[in-house]
Amino acid sequence: MENRNTNILHDMGGWSQFFFLWFLFFSGLMLASVAVLLLMSPERMMNSAASMRMAMAIQTICLFVVPALAFTYICQSRPKEYLKVENEFKLPLLFFAIVFIVAVQPIILALSYYNQQLSLPDSLAPLEEWMKNSEASASASLNLLFEDHTIFGLIFNLLVLAVVAGLGEELFFRGCIQQIMQKIFKNTHAAVWLGAVIFSAMHFQFYGFFPRVLLGAFLGYIFVWSANIWIPVIIHTMHNAINIILTYILYKTPEYDQMEAFTFDSNTILIISSLVVSVISLFLIYRNKIARNLKTK
Fold this sequence. Notes:
Oligomer: single chain
Mean pLDDT: 90
Number of strands: 0
Strand content: under 5%
Largest sheet: none
Shape: globular
Distance between the termini: 28 Å
Low-confidence stretches: none
Number of helices: 13
Number of domains: 1
Structural class: mainly alpha
């Protein structure tokens, strides 16, 4: 007999699900705050790479993994089917998605640089100051992690910032937020792009907002086309891992500074090549999706 969750809350409407998920998120935030404070002092966390990694792992699990799984179990009659954890694994689509996420990195670097050059009007100076402080805080945390330039530091950074973050954020943003948006607006494109905007905003790193929206949209479409949560999890993890490894190799070198200031004028050929390969891989992803749909009819 098929196992179903018959909890009365699985009939909640879209907006009710949306606010209930955020209730779970903020409950997780409080739980994470208590757990971190019990395990370490703020001074220790800000001065120890190991403590910072532990705090980040706790935060990701409590803010994203636990709320996503709790929401799915409470609000859905078929939790595994809702999260699409057991659907067919489409290897050709995964292959082309990997090609895309590797090829698109120069474009993301360039977009990140130009995003950082944006400035708000004088009337929004307090908001811009808050954004800069938020960005500086995030940068300080990441710098602490990459100051640990050992192989174990690299392994633990990959585990926390790539594997745990990739899994947690995909369960929360694609597995839950995007599907709630789909339930509310009944439109796949609106669900993907609204999910991507929320995904980017929740990082509180506004000088990388636009490239992160594009990344979120790509992951959203991959989730829709593959109907399998593990493919966006793998792609998200790979994207984070590429940046972690590049930072590990180039940290505090002139090449790292060039990567931070990746302009079109200085990298024209590389960016154009990146664009061509990215477009071709997107076309192959879409064609693979169309071909699979035709086969199932």
